Structures are given as structure tokens and as C-alpha cells.
Amino acid sequence: MAMNDEETAALTAGGHTVGKAHGNGDDSKLGREPEAANIEDQGFGWINPTLEEKGPVTSGLEGAWTTNPTKWDNGYFEMLFNHDWELKKSPAGAWQWEPVEIKEEDKPINALNSNQRDNPIMTDADMAMKMDPIYNEICLKFKNDPEYFSDTFARAWFKLTHRDMGPKTRYIGPNTPTETLIWQDPVSIGRDNYDQEEVKNKISDSGLSISDRVTVAWDSAKTFRNSDLRGGANGARLSLSPQKNWPGNEPERLSKTLNVLKSISSEFGISLADTIILAGNSAVEEAASLAGINLELPFEKGRGDATQEMTDVNSFSNLEPEADAFRNWYSGKSKSSPEELMIDQAQLLGLSAPEITVLIGGMRSLGANHEGNKSGILTDKAGVLSNDFFVNLTDMNNKWNIVGENKYEIRDRQSGELKWTASSVDLVFGSNSILRSYAELYAQDDNKEKFVNDFISVWDKIMNADRFENN
Length: 471
What we know:
Largest sheet: 3 strands, antiparallel
Strand order of the largest sheet: 7-8-9
Strand content: 5-15%
CATH superfamily of the largest domain: Peroxidase, domain 2
Number of helices: 17
CATH class of the largest domain: Mainly Alpha
Radius of gyration: 29 Å
């Protein structure tokens, strides 16, 4: 959720200011889960035979946190800090904290019997609000300033419930706040009245290689997450902390490439974000031309640039990848395999199996591997947008041998001559039956143009994934 300590404390305290926990019963008496329940239960699981008598059973904890659990007040902090607490068991057998001593009038009224008062409770998370020195200081501040607590909770709640909606430009309705908040990943509006062909020509003459240009565009766009609509190329945050220092982005090489592109963006008075994507597009067009296919990639102008002040460094650190299958990079820090991380990455990018396949093959042919490693570059003409990756991967004249962790060699089946090296990510497109079917499709002699067109379609999709104003 990318909440700081103050937001975490406000959400915990605010959430426990109203309502109660439900554990006044024996959870062993609950019915089966929805999928296993009787047909007459109509999809409602965990049927509770003692519901009317004792109320629901969920967490197993039982009780309210405050004297008035239906009222928004500062009662949570009064209850927490004005009492000593001891561990006791709920009726359902869960451990919970209850006051050592408490006045009868300070107890909350029983939810089912207005003539009965019960002990309030606290969870381990609540006790941390009191015992942890950092959270203790925050909560005492809330206790002494109820208006500040209410405002902090309101802001944290708004963040919690809108975190996955993407930038503010996607909000609609009369209740949309006018204030721009840093967690919304704000981006300034960029120019769109310029000649993109002039910019591309300048980039092509800059000395940056096809690999340099493809890499910078890909690294800028690959952070997009379909889950919460964060990341992406808009804003050019690749040039800012923390992204510019991520090992997966090759900081030294990135800095050199960005210095060239920044000069060009300044010359034309356009955003660095647009310039980065134009660099990638120009490289793909050149690589396609070298394959004998002349075309122009679609391009939407108008991206803006974010500043360091507009970027929540701690929050963006959560977007740092542990691997990038499309550049054949694996940090080794994850317990998941490179192939599994490829699927995770593709899911966040919203890619289908055919899109994953053609993108991998295209990126390998363009020579966009991390730090120039040759693993998976199954071609003798890197930088040409060809289907060689698939041709050589599926060629039965070749034999694969494992030579180390995530390292394989491809040798001529007859002579034993070493041809190329590859990773497990590369080989999965030959070993997995579904992925192999797509690999064989793109390996066909009569599908070279289809391969290029399909690659461009996926490339454009990723470069524009965060252009919500155009969707």
C-alpha cells in the first residue's frame, strides 16, 4: 500500500475507532466454505448456527475497541493509553488484550444486548501503537490533536481506496479533490506541437546504437503495473531516483544515453519522456528496415516530465524488479525462477502468451540484453528485427546442453560445434508446449513480416500503457 508510519497508525486507529471484532462462538461449528457448502446454502459459506444468539464468528477475536464503537471520536487513544492490558482468550479461543482494570461505564455495550457491557479489546497491532517508540509518538500526537488525527485518517483512507486507480487524470465526478498528492505520481503536461520526424532524425544521428535506444525506451516503460496502474514511460522517471540507480537499468550506460537524449529534448523544447520513446521507435524502425521491412511506428505525443520533488522515492522503490526476462537479466535475489518471474512481469504488463513470445524474440534480435550479455541472442545479425531467435530455437539440427545454473549451450547436433548460449527463459519457449506453438509459428519462413508487425503492436502497447488520457 506504500503507507508511511503516520498513515499506517491513522488507518489502524481509525479502523478500530468504529465497529468490533467477531469471535463470540466456536468456529468449529461453522458450516463449510462456499464451494463445499450444501446446494441449498446458495453460495453462502460458513453458515453459523449460533448467529442470532451470539453473532458472527470471523477473526476469532471478540469485542469492540472503544466505549462508543458507533461514534467517530478519540476514544481509541483514550482507551489504549489510559489502561494497562493483559492477554486473555476470546470465546472462540483467540488471544486478545483486555484491560487489567476498567470502569463499568467505560466498557462498550454488547452488540446484541443493550443491557450488557463487555470488556474492550486490543490486538497485537494495537499494542504496537502503544509500545513501539515510533508509533507511540505518532499516536500520542493524534490523541492530543483529534482534528489532525481525523484529517490524517481521511487522507490515508482516500489513498487506500484510490491507490489502484492510477493518476489523477483518471478521476471523474464532482467530489474529485483539487489537491494533487505525491502518491498519485503526478506528471506535468508535455508539448505535442512539434515535428517528430525531425526529432527522430536527430536521435538517429546522435551516435546511440539500436541497442542503446531500444534499452532506454524499454527500461522507461517496463515499470508499468496493470495491477495499480503505476509506473510506465510518462514522466521519464527513469532519469530520477530511485529508478536511475537500479542495477537492472544499467546506471552507467543509462546515464550516458540519457545525457544524449536530454540534449535533444532541450533543443526541441519537448519532454524527455517523449524523446525516450521516439528513441526506441526510431531504433525499431531501423532494425525493421535492415530486415527488409519499411514502416513507421505509431506515436502519441504529449508525455510530460516529472521532477524529483514529484516522485515518492520510497514508494517507487517497490517497483524495482528482481529480473527482466525481456532483457535476459536475473538478479538471483528471488526464490522464484527466471521463467516464473517472466510470467509475473508479463502479467503486470498485461501481456498474453503470444505477446510474451513475440516480444522476447524481438528483444533478443535487437540485442537489448542486460549489460550486453549474449545469452539468447540466437542470431548472427543482432540489431536486425528478424525471426532468427525462433528459427534457431526450434531447429532440430541443434542440441541444447546445460553448463551451469540458468546457463545453456546450443551446439550443432552432428559436429558438436558451439553456436550460441541461452538462459532458461529462452529455452522455455521451446520446452513449454503452448509457448513452443507460438515460437514455431514465428519461425516459419512465410511469417517474417507477421513477426515484425506483431512485435511492433506489442511494443506500441507497452510504450503507451500509461497514456490514460488516450485510452
